[in-house]
């Protein structure tokens, strides 16, 4: 008696794809993406934007945080096909003209990074917080960044950097 193997689709079977149009870091892209591809994989594998890190792949660690239409989202939980017609900002989109932006400068000044793996998640979360307007207090900052896990810094320098960033922006925000 021989056991039969269950029938499976051929290895070369085409995966279902969908065409999307999205703007990432102010550049428009038109791509065919697998319907099950996550945003983090799309950014890393298709667009070469490797600053978006993948950690837990369950939305817990926050390493894959990007900004979609002004809100922080976990790139490992959102599908790339959901980016159709939307605008995305990644950590690569923060700096301009070969210069760090003000938040990145604050992180550098406060030594708010060690290995750097979590840094893009913190930067994107704080950037999304800045889109909300106003100057958040320490408690709000701490709450907002709680969705990004870090094993190196103990969070104090990260919170201090974000506080300084917002303190420097008070005049801009109050106008």
Automatic annotation (TrEMBL):
Organism: Mycolicibacterium smegmatis (strain MKD8) (Mycobacterium smegmatis)
GO molecular function: 2 iron, 2 sulfur cluster binding; metal ion binding; oxidoreductase activity
PROSITE patterns in UniProt: 2FE2S_FER_1, 2FE2S_FER_2
Pfam families attached to this UniProt entry: Fer2 (PF00111), Fer2_2 (PF01799)
Alphabetical keyword list: 2Fe-2S, Iron, Iron-sulfur, Metal-binding, Oxidoreductase
Descriptive protein name: [2Fe-2S] binding domain protein
Domain 2Fe-2S ferredoxin-type per the UniProt entry, residue ranges: 18-94
Source superkingdom: Bacteria
InterPro entries for the chain: 2Fe-2S-bd, 2Fe-2S-bd_dom_sf, 2Fe-2S_ferredoxin-like_sf, 2Fe-2S_ferredoxin-type, 2Fe2S_fd_BS, Beta-grasp_dom_sf, Diverse_Oxidoreductases
